[in-house]
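README: folding subset

This subset contains proteins for which both the sequence and a predicted C-alpha cell string are available. Records are stored as plain text. Below is the entry for TBL3 protein (131 residues), shown exactly as it appears on disk.
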Amino acid sequence: DVTEIEEKEAQAKQEEQIMKEQELSNLLHEKRYLKALGLAISLDRPHTVLTVVKAILREPEGRRHLEENIVRLRKDQKEAVLAFLVTWNTNSRNCHEAQAVMETLLKHEAPDTLLQFSGIKSAVESLLPYT
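--- output ---
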C-alpha cells in the first residue's frame, strides 16, 4: 500500500509551497525585489510577478529600479516574464505594468537575443492588437 507514502509526499510538497509563499512575502516586505521576482517566476505565478512589478513601480524612481531588476534576470526568467506580460497587457488595469516591462526588455535586449526567446513569435502576435 503506497497511499501513506503518497500522502506524506503531498504533505511535504504542500509545506514546501507554504514556506516559499512565506519567503516571498518576506522578500516583498524587505523590498528585495530581484529575489522576489525570481521566486515568483520559479513558482510560475504570473499574478505574483505582477504584484512585485507593481510594488517596484510604486517606489521612488520605480522605472529605474524595474529596469535594474529585469536586466538582472536570467534568460529563462525573462522568457517567463514575457509570457506573463502578454496576459497582463490584455487587461487595462495591468497594461501599464506590462508596457513598462516590455519597454525594458526591448531597450536592454538585442533584437537577435529577443528572437531566440522561446515563444517570441506568438508573444509579439498577441501583443500587437493590445499595444
